[in-house]
């Protein structure tokens, strides 16, 4: 008899649980408790003196890159940002400790959500060894105390499946939509303007932006502009106007990011080629710009 | 699934990857391994860490009207603490000072080598046998160093006008 070992060094994950995803009580509970995990105040106005909104963006960007590079579960980054915001809403923090805080928050979020969490050593390397594992472990305790050990926060990601299953979406596009929604959620987490929004609103706005962006609304009447917004608003008990505003805000942030990305890309290319823009670069630019639009389909 | 729709799905996937990368590239600047805000002041960090823990402890003392350093109840809080004898608490919470497990005590590291506030790392539990769940005696080895308030005192809540939730 031939014995076959199919065990591989891959991460075993549970299948989506229909008992959790197809039960409306779960969605209602999420909506009820989500406010408890919002930061207590808009902390740049009332708590922080040394750090500025652009610094939050810097540390958020770095955290997202680390999570991407380490292939963390999708919800690790938004959850870590929730810890970071809740900590900053109560503890005045100095600029030079902000990266340490970011690392601690990823450390905690990863432990909560992953079967193989990020290690302290790895996170310290990502800070270019500006912090030591011992310090990370010490501050883990401080952060836990300030969060009152309430780590199982509701994130926008918790709502994705609950919202999507109630929409008449084409089966073959589900993965694509999901991925776009996750990307928008991550994008929102990097932007402080979204920090005080309830997670359900960010999720709903991201789904709306993804569907409009992918132009799925051209095929199905019930997914047309206002129909879609009304449908979505009903699912998460959001007000239609608020939801629309949120969607537009997400689309604006996305546009700005894409524009900024293109600018950086050009700068990089110019630096690499060490001179004025060449014809080749222009061609490349022209070919890459329309791809953007189709990629995102705004 | 037809070949055409399969191709379309693959194309979609590629598009998503491209979109995802593009957005991330827009956010990122250079390698992920980087120091964002300059050098960390180690001494100050250490001081702040100790201060933060001390403050947490003080808050907890106020919250529970119990001095956790001297392990004595405080007067005038929401709680009234009453001592109970060790035999009345579950074996899990009993300390081993009554000589119940002299062999286990011999393995115990001298208490002054470990500072109380250092967080426990998994290595510390490395020597714990795998079958710790079998008998309460072995479980008590795990807990032995952490004497609990309930070893000595029983919590009784005094009635106050506004009820508070635990941890608030």
UniProtKB/TrEMBL annotation, chain A:
Residues 266-275 have a biased composition (Low complexity). The keyword Cell cycle applies. It comes from the Eukaryota. Belongs to the cyclin family. Cyclin D subfamily. Residues 260-298 are annotated as: Disordered. PANTHER family: CYCLINS (PTHR10177). PROSITE patterns: CYCLINS. It is found in: Cytoplasm; Endomembrane system; Nucleus. This is G1/S-specific cyclin-D2. Gene3D superfamilies: Cyclin-like (1.10.472.10). Keywords: Cell cycle, Cell division, Cyclin, Cytoplasm, Membrane, Nucleus, Phosphoprotein, Ubl conjugation. Its main location: cytoplasm. Residues 154-293 form the Cyclin C-terminal domain.
TrEMBL record, chain B:
One of its GO terms (molecular function) is cyclin-dependent protein serine/threonine kinase inhibitor activity. Residues 35-84 form the Cyclin-dependent kinase inhibitor domain. GO terms for cellular component: cyclin-dependent protein kinase holoenzyme complex; nucleus. InterPro entries: CDI_dom (IPR003175), CDI_dom_sf (IPR044898), CDKN1A (IPR029841). Residues 97-147 are annotated as: Disordered. The keyword NAD does not apply. Keywords: Protein kinase inhibitor. Gene3D superfamilies: p27 (4.10.365.10). GO terms for biological process: DNA damage response; regulation of G1/S transition of mitotic cell cycle; signal transduction by p53 class mediator. Belongs to the CDI family. This is Cyclin-dependent kinase inhibitor 1.
